[in-house]
Amino acid sequence: MTIAEISVGDLAGHPAPVVVDVREVDEYLSGHVPGAINIPLSTLVGRENEFAVTGKIYVICQAGGRSMRACDHLSQVDHLNDVEFINVAGGTGAWILEGNKVVTGDQPN
């Protein structure tokens, strides 16, 4: 299965993306995409029901590797067939380098 990707520039231009940050909690606390919720890759197995929505979920990490692994895993979960998981290429590192807003702390916004 091929996982779709989006650039951070395209993500920044999206009006209301659902973003899940799969970095570890300490990474998320230090700065994340506004609105992103944190579900670390290390805790992903067993939390798949938290992704049970219809539509697109943009998955981000620091550079794109962990988020791709998360997308691959989630796209194989049977009850998530109505969800499209999209990897954010370049991750939070590219998001910051492009000068986009970052939120610190444990809240999405």
TrEMBL record:
SMART domains: RHOD
Classification via Gene3D superfamilies: Rhodanese-like domain
PROSITE patterns: RHODANESE_1, RHODANESE_3
GO molecular function: thiosulfate-cyanide sulfurtransferase activity
InterPro entries given in the database record: Rhodanese-like_dom (IPR001763), Rhodanese-like_dom_sf (IPR036873), Thiosulfate_ST/Rhodanese-like (IPR052367), Thiosulphate_STrfase_CS (IPR001307)
Domain Rhodanese: 13-104
CDD domains found in the cross-reference section: RHOD (cd00158)
Pfam families in the cross-refs: Rhodanese
Protein name as it appears in the record: Unannotated protein
